């Protein structure tokens, strides 16, 4: 049996101009020499990987891909040129303080058609507290610059539940974000990770009730303003959902390249070594987490119910040779009775109430899966 085609490719760029105090991603402060060595390793990894034809989405994230110098960005995008013939969505994450017109021209030259910009908040004092070195005006200028150059598929990241953030401040950030007319918005609530600067300083997020109120307010504001709440934390207008991430929520396989990246194939999930030093020593090394059929079925449900349209039963049957309702008969029946899930001939999805209580819904599936 030939392996199914993998449609998506992710590259992780582990460099940022500076480090946000809440961040515990795989990243470090940009240094030209280190980034050159990383590009050499990435080139080796790509050359030795077996990448199928017909990649449909590429996503370059991080870290901050725009923190690379112009020549390094050109090199990175050139390394990916062989895989972009059939591409429908090509996204690069950028931060306002590291984008130049020359970098925008490079993105255009290499076929990038979508950018994701970290706005987080409009509030200068709050951005300073997060150690983010940009203003709302910087983001606004950048959105206009991209639009003027023909990249109008723009996603903005917004954060809520930030220390000292008030409801009024969050509301103003959301209104200003919408005033820029982005095609897509992603929401992130602050989680304090042990290894972040905030974690080490003992900073606490806002209380759970305020966090829930903030989430509810943003969701209703964005849907009132024409955005489809298509995923638990993501909103799109005019059908501009993130194709790349939607593939991942639909539990498709994807390639992951660069230290800090994960990927998924028919065997399971894989990660690259934990440090940049290890990656530079052996860029092709991977650690596999092999997944049983039961684990894969549960992950399909866990990811798929994040989407408002939920899971296709036909697709699930094609993937596993069994109907969803036969794998989780009790959970589906009881959650439907309780008004949290809706089952149709071809789909299983959360009701508005179930979407609000997604974690509870998923725990119920996990209990029946008995993993
Ligand atoms: S949040 Fe993003 S920009 Fe900030 S340090 Fe982390 S990866 Fe870099």
Overview of the molecule:
By secondary structure, the protein is of the alpha/beta class. It has 2 domains: 8-248, TIM Barrel (Alpha-Beta Barrel), CATH 3.20.20; 293-371, Arc Repressor Mutant, subunit A (Orthogonal Bundle). 41% of the residues lie in helices and 20% in strands. The chain contains 16 helices and 17 strands. It has helices at 32-47, 70-80, 101-109, 124-129, 136-148, 167-179, 197-201, 208-224, 243-249, 276-281, 293-304, 313-320, 324-327, 329-337, 352-356, 358-369; strands spanning 8-13, 15-16, 28-29, 57-62, 89-94, 114-120, 154-160, 184-189, 228-231, 234-236, 254-257, 262-265, 268-271, 287-290, 311-312, 341-343, 347-350. Strand 16 and strand 17 form a beta hairpin. The structure holds iron/sulfur cluster (SF4). The site of iron/sulfur cluster (SF4) has 11 residues, from loops. Iron/sulfur cluster is lined by residues 16, 19-20, 23, 25, 27, 62-64, 95, 118.
């Amino acid at each position: 049996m030939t392996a199914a085609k993998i449609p998506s490719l992710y590259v992780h760029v582990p460099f940022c101009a500076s480090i946000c105090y809440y961040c515990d991603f795989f990243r470090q402060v940009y240094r030209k020499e280190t980034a050159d060595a990383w590009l050499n390793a990435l080139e080796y990894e790509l050359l030795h990987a077996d990448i199928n034809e017909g990649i449909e989405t590429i996503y370059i994230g991080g870290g901050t891909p725009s923190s690379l110098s112009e020549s390094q960005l050109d090199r990175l995008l050139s390394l990916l040129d062989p895989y972009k013939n059939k591409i429908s969505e090509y996204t690069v994450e950028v931060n306002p303080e590291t984008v130049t017109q020359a970098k925008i021209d490079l993105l255009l030259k290499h076929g990038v058609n979508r950018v994701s910009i970290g706005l987080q908040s409009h509030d200068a004092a709050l951005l300073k507290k997060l150690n983010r070195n940009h203003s709302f005006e910087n983001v606004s200028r950048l959105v206009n610059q991209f639009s003027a150059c023909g990249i109008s598929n723009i996603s903005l990241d917004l954060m809520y539940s930030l220390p000292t953030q008030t409801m009024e401040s969050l509301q103003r950030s959301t209104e200003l974000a919408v005033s820029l007319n982005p095609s897509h918005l992603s929401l992130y609530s602050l989680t304090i990770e042990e290894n972040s600067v905030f974690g080490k300083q003992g900073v606490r997020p806002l209380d759970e009730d305020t966090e829930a109120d903030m989430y509810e307010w943003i969701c209703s504001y964005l849907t009132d303003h024409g955005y489809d709440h298509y995923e638990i934390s993501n909103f799109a207008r005019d059908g501009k959902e993130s194709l790349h991430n939607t593939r991942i929520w639909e539990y498709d396989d994807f390639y992951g390249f660069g230290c800090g990246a994960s990927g998924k194939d028919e065997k399971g999930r894989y990660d690259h070594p934990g440090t940049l030093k290890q990656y530079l020593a052996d860029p092709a090394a991977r650690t596999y987490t092999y997944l049983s059929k039961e684990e894969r079925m549960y992950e399909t449900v866990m990811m798929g119910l994040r989407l408002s349209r939920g899971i296709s039963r036909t697709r699930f049957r094609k993937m596993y040779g069994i109907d969803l309702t036969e794998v989780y008969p009790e959970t589906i029946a009881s959650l439907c009775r309780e008004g949290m899930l809706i089952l149709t001939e071809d789909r299983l999805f959360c009701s508005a109430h179930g979407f609000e209580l997604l974690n509870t819904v998923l725990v119920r599936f996990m209990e029946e899966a008995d993993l």
